[in-house]
Design goal:
Strand order of the largest sheet of chain B: 1-2
Number of domains of chain A: 2
Bound molecules: adenosine-5'-triphosphate, magnesium ion
Structural class of chain B: mainly alpha
Mean pLDDT of chain B: 89
Order of helices and strands of chain B: HEEHHHHHHHHHHH
Low-confidence stretches of chain A: none
Largest interface: A-B, 26 and 22 residues
Oligomer: heterodimer
Number of helices of chain A: 8
Order of helices and strands of chain A: EEEHEEEHHHEHEHEEHHEEEEEEEEEEE
Largest sheet of chain B: 2 strands, antiparallel
Distance between the termini of chain A: 29 Å
CATH architecture of the largest domain in chain A: 3-Layer(aba) Sandwich
CATH class of the domain at 39-84 and 140-269 in chain B: Mainly Alpha
Shape of chain B: globular
Chain lengths: ~350, ~270
Amino acid sequence: MALFTLENISVAYNKQNILQDFNLEIEEGKFVSLLGPSGCGKTTTLRLIAGFLESNNGKFLYKGKDYTKVPVNKRNFGFVFQNYALFPHLTIFDNVAFGLRLRKASKSEIEKRVASVLEIVNLRGFEKRYPKELSGGQRQRVAIARALVIEPDLLLFDEPLSNLDANLRENMRIEIRRIQQELGITTVYVSHDQEECFAISDQVAIMNKGIIEQLSDPATIYNYPKTKFVADFIGFKNFIEFENRTIHENEIELSKSGFTFIVQKNQANTESDRKIGAIRPDNLVIRPFQELVNPGGNELPGKVKIRTFLGRSYQYIIETPIGDFTVNQEMLVPYQVGDEIILEFPANKMVLVK
Amino acid sequence: MRNRTIYLLLLPGALFLTIFMVIPILLTIGSTFFNEGSFSFEGYLHYFQDKYFIGILLTTLRVSLVTTFICILLGFPVAYYISKVGTRTKVLLLLLSIFPLLTSSVVRSFSWMIIIGKNGVLNKLLLSIGLIEEPLNILYTPTAIIIGLVHLFLPLIIITLIGVLENMDEDLLTAAESLGASRLGVFTKVVLPLSMPGLVIGSILVFVGSFTAYTTPALLGGKQRVISTFLYQNATTLNDWHTAAIVATIMIVITLLVTIIMNQIAYKINPKG
Ligand SMILES: Nc1ncnc2c1ncn2[C@@H]1O[C@H](COP(=O)(O)OP(=O)(O)OP(=O)(O)O)[C@@H](O)[C@H]1O
Ligand SMILES: [Mg+2]
């Protein structure tokens, strides 16, 4: 069941629409990430859900009730800010107790709940310190504790780990996921770190210019992107805009400038508007030119234009009659710039996007 | 080497302050403990038994505290508003709010005389719309002094508050709200404590300024003496420098005390300020 729904939401800053006819539905207990390039509207979406921003039109439904006009302080959502936003004038204890005091909890109850939430984030013994006296990771955990202690109906994170170093980031994301699963709180998480989103989410929404291009589980997004934008964003660097498309029993036949390509059929690529082929640099194969060209297709003659050493593999830019392609290939004896080669497109590795 | 250069650079200023400020102040304070050549507290005892003097002291304290309080009440919303507007409006509003500081306090006091005098603009207006029957007696009362001082010192508190409000992280207010705080709660639990450093500095400036102000109370207070006009009277009209020195010392001590107390209050509200 959907916990909350955004229906045809629009948000504008200075008369410029940032979100337009925006729709999003999130299920109870799920960990959902919003992922997208800088400026695409992730923070805006999150702030709208939290109630910090008002939409010009559209509806925000929470458990079926219209929450569009419910003010921030009545929503009982926990928000974790990118810069933590801890109250500098309060101790860690008082920071965490802030929401409980506003809810008029008794002194003993406050003490009990603050202690137990500090236990969860591994910060017992830090109660008397001030935020300035903590490290970045500790502050982040205080921010999480402060949001958790009010037992929020929804937990919202805006790039909570972007100020931490890589190691700590990895530990913290495991922590966040553990806490979320332990408490079963529905969570919306904003990030522009792809690996981070894929690692901790049940579902990922890829955003572009104020719309959601695809909302699926991480593996589906990784393997079956729907649109060119999503494919490009998650590393399908090579695209072919096909001219003709025929659907056969088990495969789809496509062509471009007289070259034929075969793509294996699946439920995700038969929609009629999927006419762009996409393939990752890792999945293209380069063969020496001497070998026979496969008459069935999926091969192009080409020439090495640029070669870059990446460490584990070489990256080549290959020039072909239908455009340039990027290929990563591991090999002992690399090709030289100017070498004539054959570029092979494995039928099970190419996806079709729109 | 580098440190020594810095000390050398400090020397002229330090010398200047010592010769023209520290030594005179110490001499003044010291002189108050000597009565006809022998050490005694008699000067002070005398003044703290003198009803007239205590009255002046209390009036001055009251006027200064009320002025400070009104300045905070009026200054906070203005500072908050100015800290939120765009840069160009901000410059304009800042200029407007410090404008009173740029006019002479004599001119300002005379303007207030015209406004709040018995036949002044204010009384005429209130009489003509029938709000009052008799003209209000404001001029030459402590109220008149307060009005003049608020006008004089409001800019100080506005400017110091803008300083802290501008640097206040907007997310802190949003965070408080998302944890369930009402507008009022956000103000009392976050904005106010975080404004404390500016508020204390502003309040001390206003209080000390009001407590020691001379022109405004002299012109708007009429026969109502405050401590600085009393001091002036003793020193120049009565030529009683011993009394003047005692009054001056009392002023210094009270100023210091109030400064310390305000700091304490601020520390209570925001220990990290
Ligand atoms: N207060 C504001 N006033 C005007 N425009 C704004 C404001 N906040 C955001 N925008 C604009 O709205 C768009 C979306 O901003 P948003 O902060 O949602 O992006 P984001 O996806 O969170 O980006 P990032 O990954 O960089 O945080 C941007 O183009 C931004 O310039
Ligand atoms: Mg953002």
